[in-house]
Amino acid sequence: MVNKQEIQSKMMQAVEAVRGTNPMAGSITNTVTINLVANAQLAVGGSAAMVYLPDEAEFLAKAGGAMCINVGTLLPIYEETLPYVAKVLHETGKPWVLDPVAVGIGSLRTKLLQQFKAYKPTIIRGNASEIIALAGLWGLDGGTEQSNVRGVDSTDSVSGAKVAAIALAKWTGGAVAVSGETDLVTDGSIMAVSYGGSHFMEKITGAGCSLGGVAAVYATATSPFIAALTATTVYNVAGKRAELKVDGPGSFQVQFIDELYKTTAEDIANNSLDIEEVSFL
Ligand SMILES: Nc1ncnc2c1ncn2[C@@H]1O[C@H](COP(=O)(O)OP(=O)(O)O)[C@@H](O)[C@H]1O
Ligand SMILES: Cc1ncsc1CCOP(=O)(O)O
Ligand SMILES: [Mg+2]
Q: For ligand 1, what atom is nearest to the CA of residue 178?
């Protein structure tokens, strides 16, 4: 039987551990949202470092507690950097987050995302359409060959990505977080549904990317499933609170960082959460 209280208590421990140790999680991420990713990582108590080059990525992979790879804006050097660092992370057993932003656009993105299958990302974080398309690219259950990703946005429902998320988690042995109005997090045997957030999160760029960066911070301190769920929950609490204090997306982004900073371990434990066993789905 899955014990919800145990999951909540592990999330609280992860939040405290990160605040107490300021762990470093390096990133190779996109040029649109790089600043928000770093600020969100700092707000929850982590330390951020962003690089582009293969040797620097290897350095961060080895020096940090986890890493975040986000393919949002690809540069030619990434053809070398990304498979190289993913292999290092896989071989050294370092947790890493993959955000398959805009999967389906362009040949380099497709090739890199195909290469990542063998390096088993510890946490895969994406919106519903990205999760479905990645499962399709990897030939797993619940995936579709044709990506429904519209640029970087989802056109699928979160519940429609359930089978794909489970299949991806079973393949990697890690966790998958599907974001949207409500969020799903699974390790292939447990499915968590987390509530909260704000409609303003669709009106700023980088809510998803920074969620991946924060998941990497928590992955330095706990299991992939708890890390993905803790990040998802912190986002739901902070998003809900920020919305109450602002009247537009610009001030929301600023307030959201403040709320990430202020969210406590207790707030996370008290946020609305459903847990079910995957075998009963
Ligand atoms: N309509 C919404 N209501 C509440 N929270 C949302 C909504 N849309 C997105 N979020 C939140 O925004 C964050 C990013 O999710 P999403 O927008 O799906 O990712 P992406 O930016 O990669 O498409 C997640 O924390 C998610 O819970
Ligand atoms: C707009 C955009 N274009 C390429 S990457 C990117 C950022 C996407 O951020 P998110 O997926 O968090 O909304
Ligand atoms: Mg995204």
A: 18
Structure confidence at residue 131 (pLDDT): 97
Residues of the chain with pLDDT under 70: 280-281
Core vs surface per residue 25-46: b (16+ CB within 10 A) or e? bbbbbbebbbebbbbbbbbbbb
The 66-70 sheet, strands edge to edge = 47-50, 24-28, 66-70, 96-99, 123-127, 175-179, 183-186, 190-194, 273-277
pLDDT score for 214? 99
Domain count, the chain: 1
pLDDT of the residue at 3:
92
Contact 275/7 with Cβ under 8 angstroms? yes
pLDDT of residue 136: 97
The residue to mutate among 27, 68, 99, 152, having the most atoms of ligand 2 within 8 angstroms of its beta carbon, is: 152
Q: Which domain holds residue 76?
A: 4-152+160-178+187-280
CATH number of the domain bearing residue 128 = 3.40.1190.20
Residues 265-269: contacts with CB under 8 Å, at least 24 apart: 265/11, 265/12, 265/13, 265/15, 265/16, 266/12, 267/237, 268/8, 268/11, 268/12, 268/15, 268/230, 268/233, 268/234, 268/237, 269/8, 269/9, 269/11, 269/12
The answer to whether 107 is a known ligand-binding residue is no
pLDDT, residue 147, reads 77
Please answer whether residues 38 and 208 qualify as being in contact, where contact means their C-beta atoms are separated by less than 8 angstroms.
Answer: no
